[in-house]
């Protein structure tokens, strides 16, 4: 019943928290560090990979899925969770999700999710800036399976955080359009979670706001925005901000030189006043060309 868009990404995140809680034995909703300060299982990287058959913006009211989740050891300060969403009965309950399937053997009738989470805490009680790593007391991770190094997102996340883009050297076979820039004021009513931090799913809705504005600037039909086929959606979370902060969002649209209607939109999200990079998003989508 969550529908497509940010509400669906929020549901995926809830499943990640539940999976980490079950796998590690740590109550992620009430975790505290050894010195007693609250710790938060923040999202650092969120990727959803779909197909023409099933994608995050093509899910309708009442659609049902079987969700298979697997949690991997990523050290004492972080954790990696994979999900596979499939139509009921596609897989048996005993079938284990192998990361090879997500990266090399994806099925067209499934949706795949990668969540890389890091434990954080506030360094200042009344500020969402200067967040620091803070693993909860008693966090158990050594017993979890290790993710093969070739499937780790750490390298791509580190480069995106440093350069402000997932596509530092451009996108082969694509031509970039003129960047589009807009602003957004962080809404204390809608964009904060129960801990007073920017809610991880709000990043998706904020990015979609920028993408829709850019869509309109191209004189595209606004109704068609909701019928995009999103094949790959990546979000890197590199900062947080306080309520009422103004954000600057820059959209760069890369159009395929060979595939009609295939494009990749990349969005950088920065705090306007300080210039701090808060997030980088890359969306591979298919659109109906008029």
Automatic annotation (TrEMBL):
Keyword vocabulary terms for this entry: Plasmid
Domain LnmK N-terminal: 1-167
Pfam families: LnmK_N_HDF
Coiled-coil residue windows: none
Record-given protein name: Biosynthesis cluster domain-containing protein
Organism: Streptomyces xanthii
């Amino acid at each position: 019943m969550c529908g497509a868009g940010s509400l669906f990404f929020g549901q995926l995140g809830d499943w990640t928290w539940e999976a980490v809680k079950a796998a590690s034995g740590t109550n992620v909703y009430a975790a505290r560090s050894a010195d007693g300060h609250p710790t938060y299982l923040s999202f650092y990287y969120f990727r959803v990979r779909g197909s023409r058959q099933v994608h995050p913006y093509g899910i309708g009211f009442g659609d049902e899925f079987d969700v298979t989740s697997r949690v991997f050891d990523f050290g004492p300060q972080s954790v990696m969770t994979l999900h596979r969403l499939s139509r009921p009965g596609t897989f048996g309950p005993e079938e284990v999700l192998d990361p090879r399937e997500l990266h090399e053997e994806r099925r067209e009738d499934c949706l795949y999710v990668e969540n890389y989470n890091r434990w954080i805490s506030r360094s200042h009680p009344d500020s969402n800036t200067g967040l620091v790593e803070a693993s909860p007391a008693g966090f158990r991770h050594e017993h979890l399976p290790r993710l093969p190094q070739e499937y780790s997102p750490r390298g791509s996340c580190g480069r995106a955080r440093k350069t402000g883009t997932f596509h530092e050297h451009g996108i082969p076979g694509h031509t970039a359009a003129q960047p589009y820039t807009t602003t957004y004021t962080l809404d204390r009513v809608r964009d904060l979670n129960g801990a007073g931090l920017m809610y991880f799913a709000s990043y998706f809705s904020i990015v979609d706001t920028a993408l829709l504005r850019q869509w309109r600037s191209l004189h595209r039909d606004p109704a068609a925005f909701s019928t995009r086929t999103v094949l790959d959606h990546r979000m890197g979370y590199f900062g947080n901000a306080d309520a009422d902060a103004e954000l600057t969002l820059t959209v760069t649209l890369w159009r395929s030189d060979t595939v009609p209607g295939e494009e990749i939109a990349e969005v950088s999200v920065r705090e306007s006043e300080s210039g701090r990079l808060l997030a980088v998003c890359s969306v591979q989508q298919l659109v109906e060309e008029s």
